[in-house]
Amino acid sequence: MDRKEFLNIVTSGLATTCVACMMAACSKDEATPSNPSNPSPNPTPGNTPLLTVNLSNQMLSVNDFVAGGGVIVVRIAAGNVVTSFTAFSSVCPHAGSTVQFVPQSQSFNCPAHNSNFNISGAVTGGPAGSGLTKKTVEISGTTLTVK
Ligand code: FES
Questions:
Q1: pTM, to two decimals
Q2: N or C: which end of the chain has fewer CB within 10 A?
Q3: What residues make up the domain containing 84?
């Protein structure tokens, strides 16, 4: 094999390798939107439920509540309509501890420094300087979601 034959073989191999690399790079970019770990490249903020409740067997009575996903939802009236429920972030605005619903007084309490909030989320006592953050309740059939 002379020098010219050797260079032809090497450059041909490099060209084939570069084309394969470019095709792989292109196909990877095109596959990104269907990547299961990132199902939506542009998710709509606020559209992902923080909490889902099945109203056919949960929250059947006034003052029943469910906490999870950083929120608390409370039934405040009969019926499965949006106005029958209220929901708030469970993060205390004072220093970030988790507030708890107190059915007996229909209020929220933060055990960390004893801030209290009424059923509307307004501060009624303690060091918190602002009320609880209101969350959106949506109902579809017997499924309630908090967003
Ligand atoms: S963190 Fe809730 S009262 Fe301080």
A1: 0.70
A2: N
A3: 47-146
